[in-house]
Write a structure and sequence with these properties.
The protein contains ten helices and twelve strands. It is an alpha/beta fold and 303 residues long. It has a five-stranded parallel β-sheet. Helix 4 runs parallel beside helix 5 and helix 8 runs parallel beside helix 9. The longest helix has 17 residues.
């Protein structure tokens, strides 16, 4: 068996920054530190941080007044920020800067009187936070079919934004549907889909056609991990999302000679390497689609 490992893969700059923030906060203030929701959508990463003293909560009422609070990489709504400020909590923002950019666009378009169509996944932490910036102006769509159901006046000014972790090809179809219905629709100055999601999808597009099977290491609640599975399947390879080697079913490997392996943007490299070793390949190759050199600074209080 040959294993082909996609590059780039694993942690993006936003995830690296968010994990570093939790670890630095533990060093500076000691345990416990509180994190609103999972810092990133990866079971292993969250478990390792919890073992070090991070406590993940869904409600700010669970945070003691004398302990630091960290906002997750997916961002939070103004309502959550206001609640933290009202309680005078020591809040540290681990929101990915690329998500913050979409929040800023939402506020700007709303101030200018636009109706906003947000392309994203209902109930995802990032979608909830972004839509909270202008709830009275926001309309969520997930598919091109949803565009026909939008209740927006024909003479309204309309703009669209997207969740950062979406599939590039899938999103383009929704954007085209929006442009057909709203020919004058405004778009963000720069694509909202994260560079890391785009690059990891590109690597899988190139890898999948030469693989009999693609395994994506990531958690079930990771949007960008699911997109990698979809991209692999769309480009000719059976594909599965797994947390680790224990999830592999023997029948997946029957007759398979080449396995493609990648990790979502919230998956640690150690998890990818564990999978590669568990496959006991005769050879391992890396397929590089693009080099990444993006880095985000930590918040001033933790530098």
């Amino acid at each position: 068996m040959k294993v082909i490992v996609a590059a780039p893969r694993g942690f993006c700059a936003g995830v690296t920054r968010a994990v570093d923030i939790v670890e630095r906060a533990l060093e500076r203030w000691g345990a416990p530190v509180y994190v609103r929701h999972e810092i990133v959508h990866n079971k292993r990463v969250v478990g390792e941080l919890a073992a070090k003293g991070a406590v993940f909560v869904d409600d700010l009422s669970e945070v003691p007044p004398d302990r630091p609070l960290i906002f997750s990489a997916h961002g939070v709504s103004p309502e959550v920020r206001a609640e933290a400020a009202d309680r005078a909590l020591n809040a540290v923002d681990a929101t990915c800067p690329l998500v913050t950019k979409v929040h800023s666009e939402a506020k700007r378009f709303a101030r200018q009187g636009y109706e906003l169509v947000y392309i994203g996944h209902q109930g995802h932490d990032e979608a909830i936070g972004t839509m909270g910036e202008a709830p009275e102006a926001m309309h969520l769509v997930e598919t091109a079919e949803d565009v026909d159901k939008l209740d927006i006046a024909p003479n309204a000014k309309v703009a669209y934004l997207t969740q950062t972790t979406l599939g590039v090809d899938e999103t383009e179809g929704v954007v085209q549907a929006l442009r057909r219905r709203f020919p004058g629709i405004a778009s963000p100055p720069k694509d909202d889909i994260c560079y890391a999601a785009t690059n990891r999808q590109l690597a899988v597009k190139r890898m999948a056609p030469v693989c009999d099977l693609v395994l994506v290491v990531g958690s079930q609640n990771s949007s960008n991990a699911h997109r990698l599975v979809e991209v692999a399947r769309a480009h000719g390879a059976p594909a599965h999302l797994i947390d680790g080697p224990e999830d592999i079913r023997p029948e997946w490997l029957h007759g398979v000679q080449t396995v493609g392996v990648t990790g979502s943007a919230s998956t640690a490299e150690a998890s990818v390497q564990e999978l590669v070793q568990a496959l006991h390949p005769d050879s391992v190759e890396e397929l590089a689609a693009v080099e990444e050199d993006v880095f985000f600074n930590l918040p001033p209080e933790l530098r």
